[in-house]
């Protein structure tokens, strides 16, 4: 019997940069192969407005993707956001990556 576990490590080398005044590009690498514990089915990007009082994972919005990069859209202008990334298998989610902070750009005409 094959038992699948959730990944034992978070995605690695998470980075981000603003694309414009309301979107951010987030990139990362999968968890180390030795700690994937099965087939990685996808990733969850968790994010919150870092300027809000409730700026932790429990208040985060979640976006699911299948690749190792994603554009998060419909963000506030000139605002800092905190991002975490998790990998998941059939058994569940990995630990969250350390958070990164990315600020959207100012609105320019």
Please, could you describe this protein's structure?
The protein has no helices and eight strands. The protein has 109 residues and is mainly β. It has one domain: Immunoglobulin-like, CATH 2.60.40. Strands 3, 4, 6, 7 and 8 form a five-stranded antiparallel sheet that branches. The chain has a three-stranded antiparallel sheet with strand order 1-2-5, with no helix packed on it. The chain is elongated and about 55 Å long. The mean pLDDT is 94.
Give the helix/strand layout.
Elements: E1 12-18, E2 24-29, E3 42-49, E4 61-65, E5 69-72, E6 80-89, E7 92-93, E8 100-103
Antiparallel strand pairs: 1-2, 2-5, 3-4, 3-6, 6-7, 6-8
Defining key terms:
109 residues, mainly beta, Immunoglobulin-like, five-stranded antiparallel sheet, three-stranded antiparallel sheet
Radius of gyration: 15 Å
> Quick one: CATH class?
Mainly Beta
Give the N-terminus to C-terminus distance in angstroms: 60 Å
Quote the CATH topology.
Answer: Immunoglobulin-like
Helix content: under 10%
Basic shape: elongated
Strand content: 35-45%
The number of helical runs is: 0
